[in-house]
Amino acid sequence: MTALRIPGVRRPGRLLAEAAALLTAAVVAFPLYWMVLSAFKPAGEVQSTEPRPWTLSPSLDSFRRVFEQQDFGRYFLNSLLVATTVVLASAVVAFLAATAVTRFRFRFRTTILVMFLVAQMVPVEALTIPLFFLMRDAGLLNTLGSLVLPHLAFSLPFAIWMLRGFVRAVPEALEEQARIDGASHARFLWTILFPLVLPGLVATSVFSFISTWNDFLFAKSFLISDTSQSTLPMALLVFFKPDENDWGGIMAGSTVMTIPVLVFFVLVQRRLVSGLGGAVKD
Amino acid sequence: MTLTAPAPPPSASAGKTPGRRPRSRTGENRTGTSAWTPWLYLLPALAVLGALLVYPVYQLGLISFLEYTQAQVSGGEPTSFQGLGNYTALFTDPQFRQVLLATVVFAAACVAGTLAVGCALAVLLTRVRALPRLALMLAALGAWATPAVTGSTVWVFLFDADFGPVNKLLGLGDFSWTYGRYSAFALVLLEVVWCSFPFVMVTVYAGIRAVPAEVLEAAALDGASPWRIWRSVTAPLLRPILAVVTIQSVIWDFKVFTQIYVMTGGGGIAGQNLVLNVYAYQQAFASSQYSLGAAIGVVMLLILLAVTLVYLRILRRQGEEL
Fold first, then answer.
1. Membrane-spanning regions, if any (chain B) (predicted)?
2. ipTM, 2 dp
3. Strand B66-67 relative to strand B80-81: parallel, antiparallel, unpaired?
């Protein structure tokens, strides 16, 4: 990672830019800092009319309340299960589809690509109505499957769209070489192409993971009576009550919900940055 | 890469420069694959999308032409065909027109804000040394990673009239941000920009880094100002990337649901902060007007479809290949 050096930008300018960057970083990170801070504040300090940006007596009360009052641990596992299933399934399916549309020329190729683009436009929330009837007819209401399937469908078009760049970046000569060495196309696909595209898969899976992890509309609509199948966002909203929000509980729950995504992001951070560049660059 | 096979057959994509991206395969047997291989690879994706996207969209369209309320769902009354009745009802409803206008203005403001902040910070990232860059990058990734629900709750708390630090800092007393229509929209706008600018920033930054340094140096040697370099050199080279982030922002911001729903409590006081997505949901699931909700969904779909077509035309005109 070398900095792009633009001649003519002298030191004072750079220092100013660096100060601006650090200030922006602080502003951008502040909501997250406040969330974690409020989660650890004792109840009296959270609901105080004199909010202070520190606490001298951190406590785990809010977390305890969240995990006791609600079956939070279970919802956490449910959310994790749904998100992991969607990420793994969409990675494999999107990889195959992206390979088809980038490394083959066939009739209707462009049509299919446009379809993938258009599919991203579909307002998910509007489809809740027909999907509800579909899940009811398939007997999937009140199961985690009713969350996995729609999210798989909604994350696929974007994943395929993003992955094209990564698949295209693998030189065709490699494929030629594998064929000359006698490898079948399936073998080339899984033992050569798949590992090479893996960084891209990781970058795109961030999006599938987030959209699935965030969802509360489907959970709210499809998991009507069986609360043991509930997921995190729904559990979080229980703490929202008109005019008497338990802010400590909300912030603790939010922290618990945000941390897995943060960990995931930090792990894939490098690949995400290079990945996005690769995906949007031709 | 050398051209080892005859030029690829002309595909349906118009405006493509012939031979710009040579392909060594035409799908024949010499590569160990048959003409059916791509379809085999596409099969799982098409099956999932067909069952869970295309079919529901078809049903959505169907329901929007029917009278479909709680009575029809429980089977108490037969469904009846309404023709364009639901759409007529929508467009003569002043609230719908108001929500439509609010959605377009709000989405446009979100897109403009996100792009401006994202691009400005991407440029800033190229001007600083590794440490500030890492700090800004990590902060942005944190905002990006925050789930929409938790981001919304945290921002509402930050701007809370009684316990929030922002009012204290700005000396606003117990000013309620969610009470007024415009201040509530402004609050949601801030949250949306906060959680969506990182995608733009990271993508544009990756794009700027891919611009060859010699080009920029040559421009600087010719005496171009930084602004001139951006406008005449960097921006044109970045245009495909800017097109991608713009369209993604339009798609995401036009469909904002969670932020409005959580931050304004389901659409604000007397529905003053409703956007189309939330309005459709409220019509369908709160009022059991499934057919009206479906009709709103169809209107949204058509608007976004129009945006997509414009986007595709721009890409084609620039000679981009899909």
1. 39-58, 99-124, 136-159, 179-206, 260-280, 292-314
2. 0.80
3. antiparallel
